[in-house]
Design goal:
alpha+beta, Helix Hairpins, SH3 type barrels, Alpha-Beta Plaits, five-stranded antiparallel β-sheet
C-alpha cells in the first residue's frame, strides 16, 4: 500500500513537471515577447512623459498641469502596452475592458464631486484667472494663494492659517483678484475750520513716502463726506491704499500710526463725537 501511494505521488509530480515543461515550451516565446514588449512600453512611457514635461516647460505652462498631463500620458501608454502584452499571451482583453468600463461608470457616479473639482482645477490651470502669490476672494473667503492643486486651491493669511477651497467652488463664481496686495480703507473726521487741501496733501505725502504702502504715490486721499448731523460732526476724510497681503494688518497698523502722527504734528483737530442731551423741566 505504501509503495502504491509513493508511486501515485511520483506519477503526480511527473505529470505536473510534464505540464509545466509543455507550457514553457509552448508559451516561453510568448511570455518572453510579452515581457519585452512591456519593458519597452515602460521605457517609451517614461521618455514620452519627459518629452511632454519639457514641452510644457518650454512654453512656460503651469507646473501642475504639466505634471498631470505627463502622468496621464505615461499611464495611458502603460495601459496600452499592457493590453498588447496580454494579447501576445493569447489573453482576450475584451471582457476586461467591459469590466473596467462598468467599474469606471460606477466610480464616476460615486466620485462625481471629486471629478468636478479636478475638472475645475484643470480649468483654473489652463485659463489662469490667478496664480500662486495672488490675493483672491471668492464667496466671502479670501487670502494669499499658496498652492493650486487639481482638486483644491490652498490659501494662507497673515496668521499662517491654511484655507483649502475645493476648485468647483471657485470656477463659475465671482472672483476678486488683487494680485499680491490688499486694499486698506480708512476714514475719519477733521474740523470744518481745517484747511482740507493741506490735510489731503500732507496725508498723501505720508503714504507716498511710506515703504510699507504699495505704490504710495497712487494712494487716494480726499473728502469722503460731510457730517453735520448726529454724534460725528466734521469733514470726513477718506483714505485708500494698498499693502502686501502677507503683512496686511502689520502694515495697516503702522501706516495708520504714521498718518495719525502727521495729523498731531500739524495740529489738525479730530473732533470728538458730540451727543446732545436735552432736559425738559416740568
Amino acid at each position: 500500500m505504501e509503495e502504491q501511494g509513493l508511486d501515485q505521488e511520483i506519477a503526480q509530480l511527473q505529470n505536473a513537471y510534464t505540464a509545466i515543461t509543455e507550457f514553457l515550451v509552448q508559451y516561453s516565446f510568448s511570455i518572453l515577447g510579452a515581457v519585452i514588449i512591456f519593458l519597452i512600453g515602460l521605457w517609451i512611457a517614461a521618455k514620452v512623459a519627459n518629452l511632454v514635461t519639457r514641452i510644457f516647460e518650454k512654453h512656460q505652462i503651469d507646473i501642475t498641469l504639466s505634471n498631470f498631463t505627463s502622468n496621464f500620458v505615461r499611464i495611458l501608454i502603460i495601459v496600452m502596452v499592457g493590453i498588447i502584452a496580454l494579447g501576445k499571451l493569447g489573453i482576450s482583453v475584451t471582457p476586461m475592458v467591459a469590466a473596467i468600463g462598468a467599474a469606471s461608470l460606477g466610480a464616476g457616479l460615486a466620485l462625481q464631486g471629486m471629478l468636478a473639482n479636478y475638472a475645475a482645477g484643470i480649468t483654473i490651470i489652463v485659463t489662469r484667472p490667478f496664480i500662486v502669490g495672488n490675493t483672491i476672494e471668492v464667496k466671502g473667503v479670501g487670502g494669499l494663494v499658496k498652492d493650486i492643486h487639481l482638486g483644491m486651491t490652498v490659501l494662507t493669511n497673515e496668521e499662517g492659517e491654511e484655507i483649502n477651497i475645493p476648485n468647483k467652488h471657485i470656477v463659475g463664481e465671482i472672483l476678486h483678484n488683487s494680485f499680491a496686495n490688499k486694499l486698506v480703507e480708512t476714514k475719519f473726521n477733521i474740523s470744518y475750520q481745517a484747511n482740507t487741501e493741506e490735510v489731503v496733501a500732507m496725508l498723501a505725502k505720508v503714504l507716498a513716502d511710506s515703504p510699507r504702502v504699495f505704490e504710495g504715490d497712487k494712494a487716494q486721499v480726499g473728502i469722503n463726506d460731510f457730517n453735520s448731523i448726529g454724534i460725528e460732526i466734521g469733514i470726513e476724510i477718506g483714505i485708500r491704499y494698498w499693502v502686501p497681503t502677507d503683512s496686511y494688518f502689520q502694515d495697516k497698523y503702522q501706516t495708520n500710526a504714521e498718518l495719525f502722527k502727521a495729523l498731531k504734528q500739524a495740529n489738525i483737530e479730530i473732533p470728538c463725537p458730540v451727543k446732545q442731551i436735552h432736559i425738559q423741566e416740568h
